[in-house]
Amino acid sequence: MSLKAEPEWAGKIVRCPGCNTKLQIPDSVGASDAPAPDAPGVESSAASSSTGGSTYGDYSSTAGGDLNFARNKPQREGWKETDPANPSIWLSLGIGTVLFVAWYGILFPFKPAADVAASDYNFMQYLSSLFMMRGLVNFAETFFFTWAIGIVWLKLQKLRHQREALLLDVLPVELGREINSNNVESFIDHVYNLPHRLRDSLMVNRIRKALELFEVKQSTSDVGSMMASQSDIDANRVGGSYSLLKVFLWAIPILGFIGTVLGLSAAIGSMDLSNAKDVDKIIGSISQVTSGLGTAFDTTLLGLVLAMFLQFPMSSLAKKEDDNLNDIDAFCNEILLPRLEDGMGADAKEPAGLADALVKAVAGAQKEFLVDLNELSKRMNEYASNLDKRSDAFQAVVTKEFINNTTVMRNEIHETLKDSLRQTSQYIGGLETGIRGLNTVLKELGEKQIIVQQVKKKGWFGRD
User: Please, what is the Cα angle at 437 between 433 and 441, to 5 degrees?
Assistant: First the structure.
């Protein structure tokens, strides 16, 4: 197999990611794409290729280092992908248990005697007393810490495996500078012939899926969309692998606070001042209180220190995994996608190819137009349905308001007419009273005689 190397690695001794043997990078690593025939490490590369490709072909090497390659047509069915970020819970638990037992095995010989004062402890005796003489809470904190360290170590091994896979020359230039329908099968076969230990990685799996999709659809845009989706899936998978570590990072200081509460409770409960005259009992009570306070504060101290020691490697590992995903995304976007050739440029050089390209373009545009038209029709139907609903709602509101206003107006008119009728009735009643009074006066006048005396007129100038 062939490996990639940056120009600044020229002349350096490195380890082959396939067989883990040492080899020297040629001095002319940046001058040409093909390695020198007599460069060191050719035999190592051949051996690693023999190890990694035995499933899909037969490999043999002679004493002189010549590589005879005879490969049958592989039956591509992919391979079972292992989780690239989540280590085995049971394996990490086993590693954590071993670290836990080993740590306490180291501290046990330094456990101080009961008659030695705490002020006389040396560093190892203080450390041993901190882990072994402060109750069960410190044991639980230490066990969670060693379990978390086991998970971090296994994740680091997985990350190292992913970084080694980045050294593979997954898309060799010897097979073609452009990847098209004619040579994409050769690139896929090359991916399947990579070493088994390295091909099950995020980068190789993503490139394999991209090449197989390109082989079927011959569309660069579809491949780009698929790789973008796969990038999100890989990022979510890596992010979810820190769930248990975050639980441990939360649980360790919480256990320290629980130990503090227990220590304070024990210190308060051990106070016995019932006989204040007995100096020995007072001194014993004070010693028990100080012991309980020591347990309380030491559990919190241990929990905070272990949480801090866990946070640093956890954050550093998360940063390295993010960088690894960014490197894979950069390789796919900057190297793989530009080399994919879906045939549009080559077909346009000939009349027949131009016609095919135009047919494909028109068909694609028509398909997009129909899709957009269906989407537009769907939206118009939704708008019409919403408009009908709004119209019905508006009609219901208008009808309700009209009924309410009509009812209010009818009530107001009824009250107004009622007041008018009441005032008219009062007026007619007063008029009736007046008429009755007038009739009474006329009746009284009718019963009396009125004498009218005629005055004799005088002549002109008052003379008869």
Answer: 170
Query: How are beta strands 67-70 and 22-24 bridged, if at all?
Result: unpaired
In whole angstroms, give the CA distance from residue 160 to residue 20.
Answer: 13
Find residue 61's DSSP bridge partners. 67
| Contacts for 29 with CB less than 8 Å, ≥ 6 apart | 5, 6, 7, 9, 10
Distance from C-alpha of 352 to C-alpha of 348, rounded to nearest angstrom: 8
Select, from the ranges 165-179, 229-243, 427-441, 447-461, the one with the highest average predicted confidence (pLDDT).
229-243
Residue 306 predicted with pLDDT over 60: yes
Torsion angles phi and psi, residue 200, rounded to 5: -85, 75
Radius of gyration of the chain (CA): 50
Indicate the DSSP class of residue 201.
Answer: S
CB contact at 8 A, 336 and 207: yes
Phi first, then psi: what are they for 6, rounded to 5°?
-75, 155
The stretches of 241-278 forming alpha helices (DSSP H) are: 243-269
Of 13-22, 272-281, 356-365, where does mean pLDDT reach its minimum? 272-281
Could you tell me which residues come within 8 angstroms of residue 377 by beta carbon, excluding any fewer than 6 positions away? none
Q: What distance in Å separates the CA atoms of residue 138 and residue 134, rounded to the nearest whole number? A: 6
Q: How far apart are CA 463 and CA 443, in angstroms?
A: 43
Looking at the DSSP bridge assignments, the partners of residue 60 are 68
Burial status of residue 50 (CB atoms within 10 A of its CB: 0-12, 13-18, 19 or more): buried
CA angle at 165 for the pair 164 and 168, rounded to the nearest 5°: 105
Residues 6 or more apart in contact with residue 343 via CB below 8 angstroms? 180, 181, 218
**Residue-wise burial string across 187-226, b where 16 or more C-beta atoms lie within 10 A, e elsewhere:** bbbbbbbbbebbbbbbbbbbbbebbbbbeeebebeebbeb
**Angle made by CA atoms 78, 177, 61, in degrees to the nearest 5:** 60
Give dist(CA 38, CA 43) in Å, integer: 10
pTM over 0.70: no
pLDDT band at 450 (very low <50, low <70, confident <90, very high): low
Output the CA–CA distances (angstroms, integers) from residue 19 to 15, 64, 160, 204, 338, in the order listed.
8, 19, 15, 18, 31
